[in-house]
Amino acid sequence: SGTILLSAIPQAAFCYMSTILIPSAGKCFILLNQKSYILLGVLSLSYWWFLAALITKLKREIDERKQADIALKEGEARLQEALAAGQVIAFTWSPATGLSERSQNTVQILGLARGQDANKPGNDFLARVHPDDRAAFRAHVYGVGPASPSYSTKFRFVRPDGQEVWLEETAKAEFDASGRVVRLKGLTRD
């Protein structure tokens, strides 16, 4: 049970193990006339010190991980605020699956209904590109390759309410060993 406590709550494990080991070591040192008791006392105290050091290390690592998580969440929040302020959508798109992942401000910039998920497969970005610009946009997206890994283009986008907006998109492709596009990463700006 001490080991279970050690992994879950280091302070509780330390207290639990201290209540077992320290009194045992004390009893062993009181009976000084027998060498085996002294050895047991030394072993109990050394085990206690080992556990104390281990618990201290675990607590430090847990605290560092919590701080890293907080810093990551704060960084993500700052990024989303900057993207929203600049009217910019950050995205990744996988040609293999056809799925994209877009920043949180996509709903506002593309005029999607509240609560509508911009990353769902049914929200086909290419289908909303203005028909007159669709072929050129498609050529840019599917024209990336190891020799030309990025593109930049401007096009009209038709929002669900029928309003047309001009968007500028810049993206760069990542490739696998055979030169096939694994994903596109980029920014779309209103």
What does the overall shape look like? elongated
CA radius of gyration is 30 Å
Strand count, sense and barrel status of the largest sheet are: 5 strands, antiparallel
Tally of DSSP β-strands:
5
- Weakly predicted, low-confidence segments: none
In percent terms, what proportion of residues is strand?
A: 15-25%
Biggest sheet strand line-up: 2-1-5-4-3
SSE diagram, text form:
Blueprint: H1 2-8, H2 10-30, H3 35-85, E1 88-93, E2 100-102, H4 106-109, H5 125-128, H6 131-142, E3 150-158, E4 164-175, E5 181-189
Antiparallel strand pairs: 1-2, 1-5, 3-4, 4-5
Q: Describe it for me?
A:
With 190 residues, the chain is an alpha+beta fold. It is built from 6 helices and 5 strands. Helix 1 runs antiparallel to helix 2 and helix 2 runs antiparallel to helix 3. The longest helix is centred in the N-terminal third of the chain and has 51 residues.
Care to give the gist of this entry?
By secondary structure, this protein is α+β, with helices and mostly antiparallel strands. It is built from 6 helices and 5 strands.
Features:
190 residues, alpha+beta, 52% helix
